[in-house]
Design goal:
With about 140 residues, the chain is mainly alpha-helical. It has one domain. About 55% of the residues lie in helices and about 0% in strands. It contains six helices and no strands. Helix 2 crosses helix 3 and helix 2 runs parallel beside helix 5. It comes from Haemaphysalis longicornis (Bush tick). Pfam families: DDE_1 (PF03184). This is DDE-1 domain-containing protein.
């Protein structure tokens, strides 16, 4: 557990021993944060890919609920390997198993390429100074 005040407990737990992470290590050691980022990246990349496809053929992008669910399903299916990578990068997988996990940084590079292509095809869609990373992490403080 992290040291967030809501996680502190005064309960007497006879059969459970709670261990807290050292201060300021939550972001580095918490694989859930990394896999959440991977899911957002996958979803937003699919959203941009749809936008680019529609720009190329000259149609308006309309994402309905079913379309969003399909994009989320695709993003979630690509997260599975990412979760393993996150555990490996956080140090929870021994060296002998780390070779079985791919790096997974291709998603971020692909997002950068997609974002650059969108900027070149439709410059008004991307405000000055906004990067692919800004787009992916737009709601990280919400």
């Amino acid at each position: 557990m992290d040291n967030w005040s809501a996680n502190q407990t005064t309960c007497d737990l006879d059969n459970i021993e709670l261990k807290f992470l050292p201060p300021n290590t939550t972001a580095r050691l918490q694989p859930l944060d990394r896999s959440t980022k991977s899911f957002k990246l996958g979803y937003r990349r699919r959203l941009l890919d749809s936008l680019l496809m529609n720009l190329r053929v000259g149609t308006e992008l309309k994402v309905d609920q079913l379309g969003a669910i399909h994009m989320m399903r695709g993003a979630w299916n690509s997260v599975k390997q990412s979760v393993a990578n996150c555990f490996r990068k956080a140090g929870f997988v021994t060296a002998e198993f780390s070779e079985a996990c791919e790096d997974g940084d291709d998603d971020e590079e692909g997002m950068d390429d997609t974002f650059r292509e969108l900027s070149s095809l439709f410059p008004a869609a991307v405000p000055a100074g906004v990067s692919a990373g800004n787009f992916v992490n737009a709601d990280s403080n919400v």
